[in-house]
Amino acid sequence: MRVKKTMPFFLEGKPKATLRQPGFSSDFSIKKPPPALLRDKGNSLGVKSGAEMPPYTIHTTLGSEVFKNVPTQRHVTLSTNSRFSPKASLPPAFQMHLSRTCSKEMSDNLNQTVEKPNVTPPASNTYKMDEVQNRIKEILNKHNNGIWISKLPHFYKELYKEELNQEILQQFEHWPHICTVEKPCGGGQDLLLYPPKRTQLSRSELDNEKVPPSQLPAPKQLPTLKGCPAVTPEDFKEKVAELLEKYSNGLWASALPKAFEDMYKVKFPKDALKNLASLSDVCTVDYISANPQKAILYAKLPVPADKILSDTVQAQGDYDIKSMIEQEYLQIEENLAESADSFIEYVTVPPLIIPTEASPSVLVVELSNTNEVVIRYVGKDYSAAQELMEDEMKEYYSKNPKVAPVQAVHVGHLLAVNAEEDAWLRAQIISADDNKIKVCYVDYGFSENVEKSKAYKLNPKFCSLPFQATKCKLAGLEVLSDDPDLVKVVETLTCGKIFAVEILDKADIPLVVLYDTSGEDDININATCLKAICDKSLEVHLQVDAMYTNVKVTNICSDGTLYCQVPCKGLNKLNDLLHKIEDYFHCKHMTSEYFISLPFCGKICLFHCKGKWSRVEITNVHSSRALDVQFLDSGTVTSVKVSELREIPPRFLQEMIAIPPQAIKCCLADLPQSIGMWTPDAVLWLRDSVLNCSDCSIKVTKVDETKGIIHIYLFTPKNFPDPHRSINRQITNADLWKHQKDVFLSAISSGAGSPNSKNGNTPVSGSTGEGFRKSLTDIKKSMVDHTGSFSMEELPPPVHLSKPGEHMDVYVPVACHPGYFVIQAWQEIHKLEVLMEEMILYYSVSEERHVALEKDQVYAAKVENKWHRVLLKGILTNGLVSVYELDYGKHELVNIRKVQPLVDMFRKLPFQAVTAQLAGVKCNQWSEEASMVFRNHVEKKPLVALVQTVIENTNPWDRKVVVYLVDTSLPDTDIWIHDFMSEYLVELSKVN
Known about the structure:
Strand content: 15-25%
Radius of gyration: 38 Å
Structural class: alpha+beta
Number of strands: 40
Strand order of the largest sheet: 9-10-16-18-17
Largest sheet: 5 strands, mixed, barrel
Oligomer: single chain
Shape: extended
């Protein structure tokens, strides 16, 4: 089964106590006035209103130059309505930054702070950057009504015969002195550029060795310099230039007045800081933010003599050049206007974001190795959005007479290709010949050669959807990723099919496990593929009617299924390899690299049990500490701590994986049909007779390949090969099959299944008859009522509840209707999770106990692979018992064999489930529709409960509480559930 590593409530967030006194509004309005916050709610993006973002370092490339790492701080203020929802789009301003700066970070964690680069190039690029900025200014000054950022590279290339580096397009937002960036209200990815709103200067180019500017504190109030003359504007600029030469790392503008007056003993001009642009001829002003007064001042860098001469010569022809540029610019505009589709050489497509749901669906397209499997996500914002876009492309290109096939093509350009069946697909050019081009369909992941006549310019409006084809890596197959046999098996099982995917690591190429959920049981595709490439020469192929000796019975399950080891080449090789690993670990210090850092279902690793290493496969991950494993070579299933597992050393890994599992699943043949379900007596007798006996013999009667089980006759050494003295005949003794409904046996084997079991190495009795009589005697002795040792005084204290009139944070695991639901105290949930982990580990290795079950007593029961504290409600005739989960409030039916006594160590924590009733609303009979509405609003959600009444009882599970429930997940509105349900009842009565 797929694993849920955390409980659902940990994904929902913590409830917030932002309550007012409850009341039933006359207009049944759900919305309440914004409450006074009792604690800061923040927002879903992790950015608090008005908070200052932490500094960070980035790398940006311009041409072949690499910008210096520049620490940057930025103030971000978000509206409380701008929180993130997986199904809602982000605010436009956030979308603009998100698509550029956090493709990887957002796929890793949507709650991380969104970065926004603010890059300053080094001084070595000063001239180049100034030239680029001046050219962009010239273009924008001729386009006062704005220009699309996607068209700017064309204008730039035509005017200046140079390519405009794409990194520069991402810096425009940080050049307020060069341009103004605006996102159109209609949406889309393209942006509009305008000339700057106010005259500002370009940033200074910091030297590679420069450090942050000198930190001079700005005084709140400058002292009056009496008797000091006022400085003239000309002298002021000269003095500022002279002063700045002493500060090689720059000087904050706010610190200039004090530094100026301290050095020259004259008054600093009153309004000089309000117009820093006036100092542009004597210094360089580097604006840090939108505030024009928050800037760093640098001394002007000396200009080389040859540069001065070239500037003088260039100035003489400036007028002619500008006139020529204007003419060329107008010509370019006319050429672009002739076509409705401008060909975009470098289009910005937003990155593909990994779905946030626990198990998204994917379509496997193709693969060349298991580390690069091409997939497409299936869902509303993925495959459905792509189909909608392709329908729009078909409509656009089929009915637009202006579109025409491309003439000039270049590798890397995006196209719209008319593919088979009149479909229009997005594609990227891989290579080009005279008449054909090779393209990769970016939404499907495969390539093909197409005629140029079928390739058209891609309209920018079809670039807003991320490329849908992406890659993933199959977990557990990395060491054999290029193995042709493995690739063939994976391709056969997966290509063209849809799977559920568990994402283990959200890297650039995510690490995943694929699951086939089309049948009754989920099939782990990764594990299936790994087992399919085992060395066939090492497999055991049992033949019908053949006899096999020296067989070892390694495990006996509670349903009578056996696991056996038959001597073979594979078993010998496995034992030799495990001895080598034992010697390797003995000689080599055990380092952290051999600990399991990322457990997942299907992973094969090592477990040290009974003094030797064994191969195990992880079958279920309960939490970060506890998981279930199956011993591949004995068939035993048990629960262990993650810290007890070890990675297979790399030098042995490939050889270890190639050995097939040595445990053969068997069942006893020709048992009477009247036997039905196995009794505890029969299982105990079988375990006592043959478990861990290494010299048994078997005769194969049937091989059921569909179920993967072998039907056998089983013999002990003294009775081989007489069929009448086989275990099959002896176990039919009538006394073993008397069903005693109040006695149960754990489903976990006490032998191989329990590493710490005392009975694991119990020798087989001298004769089968003696073992049979001994087991019956032991069973009768163990038939005692253990419930007497657990009196009511040993029950845990009741869980703490707030007093009437006080509120508490709760979680609602079960909700039937407003008259009956279950709450858990939020602050105790983490303790419950720890207890659940400890119960899994304890009961998986504990010795079996036999107990007379009694109604209304507390036990431990295994429900869906987890052990729960339960109250026994009833014993049914079909081998099932009815139990009530004391910590989660659910009623379940479980097999009688999966119930054990609840030991003292698990009776300390109060039972967490408290039955509750909703206050403020009354209804004698809740309809199914009303109950469903209530469940949808409260079940499996963290809420705030305002306690009205607590009804105490001697039994902790009979306590009841009447509460108001409040949903505080919205930032500025609390939803009172009783108001909501009252409104619903009123509306329902109007309809009826």
